[in-house]
Q: What sequence folds into this?
């Protein structure tokens, strides 16, 4: 079956090389609603949504995608309109100016109307929501108000904030009226990417039987790299160049090791939406005299990222904020890199006992790196193989798709 982009345009959905597709027992007409659906996906949620959409289509379901208009165009998909986006603010609910409040309300009304229009036109069996940040919460409300089966994939903490806003005191009820939040949100089926995300809803009173935890899945191609016992010392950081990802901590850790007489190189894959912050990172590297040890590789195609992971000794993610999952860590483990990550959010859940958990500080990261580098080669190989095995057992897209399909039916 085909995937139709009814609002977009979308971009190319990559084929999942080596993935065995099984026909569905019941073919579904599925409407996916998402903020971004393009051929230049860079975030974990975007990559996961592309893989899921492609796999569902290969399994025989009929898919339609309703999304905001990304920057690129594609002739492969039908273009019939667009959802409206608002610019990100410091808070998705507490807006800081009347102009932004007005824009938010206008966007909310428009997106509610457009979403209901296409729901009525398509008449899907199930509405499948992914991230809707910057679209306001009205696509969620329109989906809930339609009475059609609603499944929400929880990639981050955004929906939990909406859930909390739809309950409680009169002020929250007022926000619900303004932003079209619906009490029927409580009847949706939730797919949490980690137990950490699921626990947020359970602790807030969401019904246990409506939540299922399905870890992010990796396509078969990421597992296809042969294990190599070659000694690898370089360190890799993959992710947005932003404060919450701990990029400054990672760079400072290289400086701490250098001061201890241990020379390590750090390769950074990712981009920054904040040019000022990126410039400040460059200044920090110059000030610490680390220009020869820290290299920026920019944004790379996913397959090239896997190649870099396969050649790395360590994947370092000292996130200072709570990670909802940590897709790049699971990918790196599948490629044979040893994970050193902060003890925040779902990262402990991802690596299990196949890596090092640290406080997100330069000295803690440096000590974990130093300890790993001093291990015998046989022990390093054992740890890397254990990580690859864990990734295969827990994060295979083929296994996870069967669970997602059950949640949708």
A:
């Amino acid at each position: 079956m085909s995937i139709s982009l009814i609002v977009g345009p979308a971009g190319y959905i990559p084929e999942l090389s080596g993935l065995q597709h099984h026909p569905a027992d019941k073919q579904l007409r599925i409407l996916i609603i998402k903020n971004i659906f393009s051929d230049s996906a860079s975030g974990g949620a975007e990559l996961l949504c592309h893989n899921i959409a492609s796999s569902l289509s290969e399994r025989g379901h009929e898919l339609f995608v309703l999304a905001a208009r990304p920057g690129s165009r594609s002739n492969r998909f039908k273009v019939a309109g667009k959802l409206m986006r608002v610019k990100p603010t410091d808070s998705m609910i507490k807006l800081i100016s009347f102009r932004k409040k007005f824009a938010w309300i206008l966007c909310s009304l428009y997106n509610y109307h457009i979403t209901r229009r296409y729901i009525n036109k398509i008449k899907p069996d199930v509405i499948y929501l992914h991230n809707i940040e910057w679209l306001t919460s009205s696509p969620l409300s329109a989906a809930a108000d339609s009475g059609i089966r609603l499944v929400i994939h929880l990639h981050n903490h955004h929906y939990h904030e909406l859930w909390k806003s739809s309950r409680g005191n009169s002020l929250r009820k007022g926000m619900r009226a303004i932003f079209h939040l619906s009490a029927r949100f409580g009847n949706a089926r939730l797919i949490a990417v980690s137990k950490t995300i699921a626990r947020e809803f359970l602790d807030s009173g969401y019904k246990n039987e409506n939540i299922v935890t399905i870890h992010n899945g990796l396509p078969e191609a990421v597992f296809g790299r042969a294990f190599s016992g070659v000694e690898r010392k370089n360190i890799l950081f993959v992710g947005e160049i932003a404060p919450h990802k701990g990029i400054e901590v990672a760079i400072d850790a290289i400086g701490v090791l250098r001061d201890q007489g241990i020379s390590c190189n750090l390769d950074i894959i990712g981009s920054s939406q904040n040019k000022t912050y990126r410039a400040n990172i460059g200044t920090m590297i110059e000030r610490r005299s680390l220009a020869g040890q820290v290299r920026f590789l920019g944004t790379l195609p996913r397959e090239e990222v896997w190649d870099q992971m396969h050649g790395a000794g360590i994947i370092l993610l000292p996130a200072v904020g709570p990670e909802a999952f940590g897709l790049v860590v699971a990918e790196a483990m599948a490629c044979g890199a040893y994970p050193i990550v902060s003890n925040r959010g779902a990262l402990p859940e991802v690596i299990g006992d196949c890596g090092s958990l640290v406080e997100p500080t330069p000295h803690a990261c440096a000590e974990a790196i130093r300890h790993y580098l001093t291990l015998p080669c046989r022990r390093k190989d054992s740890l890397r193989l254990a990580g690859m095995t864990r990734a295969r057992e827990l994060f295979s897209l083929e296994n996870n798709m069967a669970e997602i399909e059950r949640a949708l039916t």
